[in-house]
Amino acid sequence: MQGLQNGGGRQKPGSRTEALRFAVSLCALAGVINIAVRLIVLFLFRKEEGSYPGQYISDMTVMVFSMLLPVMALGYMGNGIKTYFAPECRRAAPLPSVLFVMLGFSGCVLFNDFVSLFDRFLPQADVGTIYITPDFGSFSLILISSSVFPAVCEEMLFRGYMYSTLSRFGAHFATVFSAFMFGFMHFSPSQMIFAFLCGYLLAYIRHVSGRFMLPVIIHFLNNAFSTVGTFIGLCCGTTAYACYSLISHAILMAVFFGSAGLLIYGGLNILSFRRPRRSLTAREKLKAVVTTPALIIFVALAVIEKFV
Hints:
- By secondary structure, the protein is mainly alpha-helical.
- It contains twelve helices and no strands.
């Protein structure tokens, strides 16, 4: 397995295609495990009404068993857990790292604004009852369950394990595929589009910065931003929430273009993806991906989950 994942030495096109299928199968397996665990939990507890704080504790438990533990197991059986999450460069300059975080956070918020324009035309998922009370304990628990756990567990799965497993076939391919998996594992068309755009941006930042922790920080900030807005609306009313939303979005729009401009001014070609040597063509990669049985099973399970 290590030889296949490391991909050392010269490989014929046929062997490279099989290596790609194997890597895609590993990623699809992680996705299948994630969906299977969620479906089992849904089947076992679908008739029970949630309660605060039990709902959020249950959500965190599902994330651990459906994402964190499978990733740790697959990473351990592959090239070793650290290889998927270790920095690709020993030292990262503080200023570019801060700019990448600002770019990613503001970009995710703007993506959400863009996708929300089409909400009326797209079917929405039934998210169920959300239990919130306007107190510090409720805020802390929801912040942990909706921001800390998703930031760690989801990033370890998508920008950690999946991206690293596929990166030797090309950074752009790994970015697109991990974003596709990230989007497809969300519940409604609008969420899928938003998750794909954010997943692409987060994987891109992982690629150009060489730092796995930056997408984790960005993911946390994006979810925390939404949680803070929910509590402002709950505690202070719709007028206060509207002011918060208007001011914060205007600031973040300036942050997005400002951070992108500074990164470009610093010499970063933000649209560059280097093609690896002896790489398969885009058509060969697409053919290998769509003919991978494990990925077909994953897509089928994801579709089933959306109709359960």
